[in-house]
Amino acid sequence: MQPERLPLAKVFKVPFLSLDGTSVEMASLLFLFLLVIGISVIKRRRQFVRRLVQVASFLVFYFIVYSCLGVFGMIRSGLYGMTLLGSAYSESFYWLALPVVVLAVTLLHGPVFCGWICPTGFMQDITGWIRKRFWNSSKPLSRGRLIGLTIFVALFLGVVMWMGSLRQLLIEDSSMHWAAMLILLCYFVLAGMLDDQASRRLRMFSLVAILVTAVSHVAVTSPLHFAFTSRDDKASAVTTLVILISALFVLRPWCRYLCPWGALTGLLHRYSRLRIAKVHGQCNACGTCNSSCDVGAIDHGEVKVNQCQFCYSCVDHCPNGGVQVVDAWAEKASKAAVPAKKAEEST
Q1: Both 35 and 111 in a single domain?
Q2: Final residue belonging to a domain, choices 232, 267, 302
Q3: The whole model's pTM is what?
Q4: In 3-state terms, what secondary structure has residue 66?
């Protein structure tokens, strides 16, 4: 006797019944990526449209996408989802979907998640806009501002220790450690005690730390974690506030120095299909691209691939077309085809 076949719709419907909202999350996220990919080819007022996409993305993550659980959560969720493969497929899909989609799009289209969609990046851009409007970032930090930053750092560390001693805010909460490290890094870089580029290697430290804690089953919370859970997470909220304040002094400081997801997408971007590169012969070293990049990923027209967030700001602001998006896979294929063609001609 032949078994009864289920309607085709059941194949897609049944796996999501145990995880209400999963399909809505994925549909929203995929729509955002398709929107970014479609808009990125349009040159007219692209940066203004990017801001609109960032606002929409923030609302989507705040009201719809609950599976990311903050900056650290996407990495931990992905690892947890991998452990469920073979036993709970629908739940595994729930936790793996977001990180897998982000990594796949990064490999095909560059790290547009960082430049267009990430809610943490958008929040830094808000306070970064205030910095650009009221403070010339090309000038070194004045003595008065350095003194003010010193006082703020000292007060912040003092308040954290005081609240920890009163048990109102657990000082051992991991997100506070990242907050303290971030504000100290910004202070030391602005004071000239640390090099900006060298300090960016700490992103890999964050990535390793998250992987180790996830495997060791040590609970860690990240900035914006409080926005994705009903738990009263004061430490996460304070850490988010510190990131926003830090962005008044250094543009996108979290992305520059401590974001583990940025380190991961930066590594993958080395092998991605699309990347932003200097066009030799059209670049006149005017420095416009350097000043337009909020994460400082450009040096005299040369784009640091592992730091680029694919926001297209340098491409849109370059007056001579000296910085453009290139298809690295196509270029590699064409270069590999030249020796093969010469070998055929010689035979």
Answers
A1: yes
A2: 267
A3: 0.84
A4: coil
Domains: count for the chain = 3
CA distances from 308 to 112, 126, 248, 269, 296 (A): 10, 19, 21, 8, 8
Supply φ then ψ for residue 32, to 5 degrees: -60, -45
Q: What span, in angstroms and rounded, lies between the C-alpha atoms of 68 and 70?
A: 6
With H, G, I as helix, E, B as strand and everything else as coil, classify residue 317. helix
Question: Do 74 and 183 reside in the same domain of the chain?
Answer: no
Instruction: Report pLDDT digits (tens) over 38-83.
Output: 877 788 889 999 999 999 988 888 777 765 667 787 888 888 888 8
| Domain identity same for 289 and 256 | no
Last residue of a domain, one of 117, 149, 172: 117
Q: Is 18 exposed, middle or buried (0-12, 13-18, 19+ CB in 10 A)?
A: exposed
| C-alpha to C-alpha distance for 196 and 304, rounded to whole angstroms | 14
| Displacement of CA 120 from its chain's centroid (Å) | 8
Q: How many CB atoms lie within 10 A of CB 328?
A: 17
Pair 200, 214: CB distance under 8 Å: no
**Confidence (pLDDT) at 154:** 84
Q: Confirm whether 135 is domain-assigned.
A: yes
Distance (Å, whole) CA 308 – CA 303: 7
Torsion, Cα of 175, 181, 185, 187 (10° steps):
100
Residue 296, domain CATH: 3.30.70.20
In this structure, are residues 329 and 270 in contact, taking their beta carbons and an 8 Å threshold? no
Statement to judge: residues 236 and 295 lie in one domain: no
For 154, residues 6+ apart whose C-beta sits below 8 A from its C-beta are: none
Same-domain status, 263 and 248:
yes
178 and 247 in one domain? yes
How far, in Å, CA of 36 to CA of 38, rounded?
5
In tens, the pLDDT along 133-143 reads: 877 656 666 77
Both tokens of 252, joined, read 């996108």
Please indicate, yes or no, if residue 223 is contained in any of the structural domains: yes
Domain of residue 148 covers 123-267
